[in-house]
Amino acid sequence: FQFIGIEHVVKTLRSVSVDLNNDASLLIDIPDALCERDKVKFTVHTKTTLSSFQKPEFSVPRQHEDFIWLHDTLVETEDYAGLIIPPAPPKPDFESPREKMHKLGEGEATMTKEEYTKMKQELEAEYLAVFKKTVQVHEVFLQRLSSHPVLSKDRNFQIFLEYDQDLSVRRKNAKEMFGGFFKNMVKSADEVLIAGVKEVDDFFEQEKTFLLDYFSKIKEATAKAEKMTRSHKNIADDYIRLSATLNSLSAEESTNYYIIKFCLKLFQNFLRVCLKKVEGRVASDEELKLTELLRYYMRDIQAAKDLLYRRARALADYENSNKALDKARLKGKDVSQAEEHQKRCLQKFDTLSESGKKELTNFKARRVVAFRKNLVEMAELEVKHAKNNMTLLQGCIELLSGN
Amino acid sequence: MASSSERSPPPFPDTEDQDVLDSEEVGGRDSDEDDGEELFMSASNTPLTKQDTPTSPDSQASDLMEDLSVGPPSSQTEKSAASSSPEEFVDLTNNLESRVAAESSSPEPSDEFFDILGSETQKVEVEASVKADSGAPQSKASSRPEKGLFGEPDEDLFGGPLGAMSKKTTENEGKSGTAKAAGPTFSKPTEPADIFTEEAAATTVPRTSNTVNSKANGVHSEEDLFTEATVELSLDSPRSSRKNEETSKPSASSSSSSLSAPARQAKPPPAALEELEDEEEAELEDKFDVLVSVKDPEKVGDGMNAYMAYKVSTETTLPMFRNKLFTVRRRFSDFLGLYEKLSEKHGPNGLIVPPPPEKSILGMTKVKVGKEDSSSADFVERRRGALERYLQRVVNHPLLLQDPDVREFLEKDELPRAVSTQTLSGAGFLKMINKATDAVSKMTIKMNESDAWFEEKLQEVESADQHFRKLHALVESLVVHRKELSLNTANFAKSAAMLGSAEDNTALSRALSQLAEVEDKIEQLHQDQAAYDTFSFAELIADYIRLLGAVRGSFDHRIKAWQRWQDAQAMLQKKRETEAKLLWANKPDKLQQAKDEIVEWEARVTQFERDFERVSATVRKEVLRFEKQRTKNFKRQITKYLELLLQSQQQLIKYWEAFLPEAKAIA
């Protein structure tokens, strides 16, 4: 079950971000990863036909920080301002299963041995699933880059893939962290400032309102879906414990009472096989199909919003340069310089608008396809699980009434 | 004998040879019943004060007796005629009026007893009551007739009923009449025997009772049946029956309660157990003869004095009830009161009395305060269900069903307020103390278990109890989580709908709002599921935890019986030593007393040993019954639960399958 579960996780996650073109010129995957304390070492495996790479196939070790670095450099590259930079993978979080494991260790004395073993198995499976999921989000990030016509050609990206030594990216120090925070603040303030700039393009105007609205909605939906999934998991946990208790109860029930024993055993089996597993599956499927989808698109929309911000910034710059040009003309000083600047700004803004428009349209199509795929899959899985449950339940009821 | 007036449990009525007692009792019972009947009749008219014991009925009693000896049919009429006059009898009932009325109804099924429980039941009752009766008056009075009876041939003993009856009546009235009453018995030994044969034929019996019937109200007629039944049954004069007297003893101190004692004791006779088992087997297979439902919980009153009242409807095919369908209103404390009565009566005999749901100050306070939130509605519904199951268990128990209190509870319009159940009442406090002492004695009594079966069972019960408790906690947490899930699903549904409205792709927007709808429905499903978890699963387990407590209680009663026996043995040993000492010291004057005492204690030891054996047998049977029922019940409940789960899964499939085309339509 564990194994299947994880395979399942892997496959499902790949579908979260669909619309990766089937271009076989650059194929990236993470076949392996190693967890060392807080660090996770991913093995990034690349297969390519592109001449820009020295070898057609190679593997390099990378850490989560390397991915962040790659993402940041992409964001900071001026040329990509008109692109939606794929959202960086979230930091690996093993806290929850670790904490649970810890709790389980503390509660060992209060549990029967069997119960403990079961819970432990469950937790190990969960831990493994989280681990695999982490690997997958990193993989998806790279795959989105590789499938992007512009980003796949990025030098840093290629270095990231090819350089066979440790990238030894410096971890951000406190000052930089603060800087990043400060930058975010400035950005937010700036967003407010430039909000007053009159939009010249209806498409972007609409897109802006849409994305802002959509973002807040999807953020909420994600939070709610996460909660829902968590409570589903709680229920699955309850089933495990119930099943274990029933099991020990049926084991201890005197042998004279075969029927009770039988009942309990059956019930326990039912719980174990059906509810725990299926409920757990429902939870993990919901997690993967729905929550993960929402989560991913939440981040993606953030990236799209960033794009809009950059464009708006460019627009504001352009307008400022217009004003500066007017001033310069008025004063008759540095006119050509201002003209130059204004021209550059306009050009920048135009490129941004153009590529932004393309990116956003792409994004929309990608989103719809991804939602469709995931929702269909989720509905199918839900039906499948419910049917499984039903068959099991019917079997149990028949067995019970037959005795 | 002196001890007979005490209320404490161990006193033993007579030092005389037990056999004599037995045979005497056989007769005595009869008279007792007659008395009882008269009592009941007159009781309804004129409740007077107790302890008022004139000698006049003396003659009346003997008259009665003579009438009886002439033949049953006539005696019946005579009896009923007589019944109106002696207010003395009435005295005895005094405050127990209602009880008496109930008692009178209890023997009603006596004709059923013939088939179902067999004669033993009745026998036991007979002796028990006689014991009680003979114990009631002071020692000298009662011992005398016994001596007289002693040595008489069997026929005489059968004649005994009549004689004893007179004796008995007199005893009840006062001490004076005893000797006189005893006399007639011997003078007419053959007559009663005839009566017996007649009654054994049992054809005349109902008729005579009917004549009485016409005068008294319906309930009383049963008393006659009962009387006759006991007479007939006492033919095979049982020895085992003595046990009951010890229980009835305390009550014997007041003659009024001694009357109720027989009915009480009637329930748990050991010998009837085989029949009991058969019957319950049949019962298990069959539909229940009595279906009880508890409905319409309703808050009565305001503030902290408010209480919940429930409608208790009974549907039955049993002839013992007046109607096929009847409904009464009962408040929660009435249910508890019924349990108190039942456990007091039947607990010491090893019966597993189904326990009602506990009082819950917290839950009830919420209801009282009147917060109309879901948790208090949940609480009320849980309790309603628990009360219904509790009551159903009571009526499913073949012996408890026969209990007058049960019938009264089901049938009578107004019940006296059950006071002892009040949370903070003095009675409650006393009960608490009793429980505490019980707990202490439970710890201190070290019983070397002779019967491996009990040891094994007790262990089993204890481990099952533990497991069930754990299970219950788990199911409760499951319910909590399920409710959480339901809430979270609802929240998600809302935000999915919002997301759908924000989405600019029409098909996707539609699909998202469809998803919201599906999640909404699923939320309802989760909510229902939480209710199933609670009501079909958690409550089932809670019930079993309560029942296991009752099972343990029956084990405790058995140990108490054992302890009594051991104590008596120790006492006997002491007495013997005293005797030896006296013998050695050559004190003949005291020696006789010591010897008497030894005889007395020997009798007690035998008595208590039998008691213990009887309780053991009952407990064993009861535990088997409990297990059988549990198995059945568990199976039924689990099947039900699974079916409910199945239903919700089917719904789930429906919902998602309906959603699927919507998702596929996204483009």
TrEMBL record, chain A:
Any keyword Thylakoid? no
Return the GO cellular component terms, semicolon-separated: cytosol; endosome
Q: Does the keyword Transport apply?
A: yes
Q: Report the domain of life of the source organism.
A: Eukaryota
Sorted alphabetically, which keywords does the UniProt record give? Protein transport, Transport
Write one Gene Ontology MF term: phosphatidylinositol binding
**In what residue span(s) does the PX domain sit?**
20-167
The free-text function statement in the UniProt record for this protein reads: Involved in several stages of intracellular trafficking.
Name of the protein: Sorting nexin
Organism of derivation: Oryzias sinensis
From TrEMBL, chain B:
> What SUPFAM superfamilies does UniProt report for this protein, alphabetically?
PX domain
Biased amino acid composition, Acidic residues: 14-38, 274-284
Give start-end positions of Low complexity composition bias: 249-266
SMART domains, sorted: PX
InterPro entries (UniProt xref): AH/BAR_dom_sf (IPR027267), PX_dom (IPR001683), PX_dom_sf (IPR036871), Sorting_nexin_N (IPR005329), Vps5_C (IPR015404)
Which Gene Ontology BP terms does the record give? early endosome to Golgi transport; intracellular protein transport
The molecular function GO annotations come to:
phosphatidylinositol binding
Where in the sequence does UniProt note compositional bias of the Polar residues kind?
42-62, 205-216
What's a Pfam family in this record?
Vps5
**In terms of one coarse class, where is the protein primarily found?**
other
Segments for region (Disordered): 1-287
Keywords, ordered alphabetically: Acetylation, Cell projection, Endosome, Golgi apparatus, Lipid-binding, Membrane, Phosphoprotein, Protein transport, Transport
Q: Which family does it belong to?
A: Belongs to the sorting nexin family.
Any idea what this protein is called?
Answer: Sorting nexin-1
Organism expressing this protein natively: Oryzias sinensis
